[in-house]
Amino acid sequence: MPTDTMAAEKITVYNLADLKNTTDDAIPNYLNSIGFTQSHTLTDVRLALGYSAFALAAACFAWDYHFGFESTKYLTAAAVALYTLLNGALTLWVLYAERGTVYVGTSRATGETVRIGTETKKNVPEYFVTVEVTSKDGKKAELKFARSFTEWFDVTGRFVAAPFQTMLVSSVPVIAKADPKRAAAALEGATADATGASEGAAAYSPEVLEMLANADVSVVGSAAEEATGSEAAAGKKGGKRRKA
Amino acid sequence: MLSSLQNPRQAAAQLMNFGLILSTAFMMWKGLSVITDSPSPIVVVLSGSMEPAFQRGDLLLLWNRNLISETNVGEVVVYNVRGKDIPIVHRIVRKFGVGPEAKLLTKGDNNAADDTELYARGQDYLNRKDIVGSVIGYMPFVGYVTIMLSEHPWLKTVMLGIMGLVVVLQRE
């Protein structure tokens, strides 16, 4: 079952790589928990290529160290050529086979395979997602969308699972099928939003607000004591928003 | 960062990336060795015996193939004295005979006498196989870093300290 637990680790919200890596790590956790079987083939091939190249270099170092250059130079030349090939294959594999893929898995419910690739662009705080769905009979469909990281990271840099999972469910039909509970909740939240009552946000806002309050105490400190006092009179929620 | 170690594949990939940086540097060096046919295709000048051509700290690129002609008088070569592992950069001033058995005598441009004093006991001349390569290019001053590091070992400690500090400050 999908869990609503928060990642224990806090990241720096200004670090795009941190935002992306933390989010990337959350995808397999979530999808594997709702009945997807993950395929590691892409990663395993990359590891095999990389480690065989490294092993070759290590062997080359060993024979060079023991027997000297002159007596092993043809072997070394062959090793250099093979190393170049292996490294080239690794580069091509990462560029054209992996293409930024963070997850490949098959839904046990529908038999469809999803490949999820993600990327970020410099100075754009958005998560660019490409989902490639291959149905049982081999038909491919591609789906692209970009969402702001602010949807599932709070101001303190904690990853919040619920809105992230809602985002995936509402964007990718295959995932919605695999997690009907979350899909129904997302739909409810959407209709509530449409009527103006923002029930979806309220589902996780108390704990985030609590964290915000804690964070404000530590960040603001005594220097802004006066300001906090006047804001408390004006209304707690407004004060928080201004600071955020 | 530590959380990634819980996933064995991710940990293996991180270790691999680090390993590949080292192995690629090593294989590039070996590739240069193979192309130039020299066990040590880049050397640093350690003495002033070839001034004004080369100063201490110059980086030399060597070539050890005789594609067009043999190694001849006038070429600046790097050789190892038999039994010692110190490469010396000097110019060939005499040559008797041809082929791999030719007898070669070297001298530093800035030295008063030829190198017979420098050779090993009982060695009066060099053979072609003693030569590590002929100088075909140089970069002034770049190699001074390695001279400084080997002559003042405390600099290594300082450098390691600075690198450690950078790692701590950058967190990655």
Automatic annotation (TrEMBL), chain A:
It comes from the Eukaryota. InterPro entries: Spc2/SPCS2. Its main location: endoplasmic reticulum. The chain crosses the membrane at residues 48-67, 74-96. It is a multi-pass membrane protein. Pfam families: SPC25 (PF06703). Residues 224-244 are annotated as: Disordered. GO terms for cellular component: signal peptidase complex. Signal peptide: none annotated. Residues 224-235 have a biased composition (Low complexity). Component of the signal peptidase complex (SPC) which catalyzes the cleavage of N-terminal signal sequences from nascent proteins as they are translocated into the lumen of the endoplasmic reticulum. Enhances the enzymatic activity of SPC and facilitates the interactions between different components of the translocation site. Belongs to the SPCS2 family. This is Signal peptidase complex subunit 2. It comes from Dichotomopilus funicola.
TrEMBL record, chain B:
Gene3D superfamilies: Umud Fragment, subunit A (2.10.109.10). The keyword Cell membrane does not apply. Component of the signal peptidase complex (SPC) composed of a catalytic subunit SEC11 and three accessory subunits SPC1, SPC2 and SPC3. The complex induces a local thinning of the ER membrane which is used to measure the length of the signal peptide (SP) h-region of protein substrates. This ensures the selectivity of the complex towards h-regions shorter than 18-20 amino acids. SPC associates with the translocon complex. Keywords: Endoplasmic reticulum, Hydrolase, Membrane, Protease, Signal-anchor, Transmembrane, Transmembrane helix. It comes from Dichotomopilus funicola. InterPro entries: LexA/Signal_pep-like_sf, Pept_S26A_signal_pept_1_Ser-AS, Peptidase_S26, Peptidase_S26B. This is Signal peptidase complex catalytic subunit SEC11. The chain crosses the membrane at residues 131-147. One of its GO terms (molecular function) is signal peptidase activity.
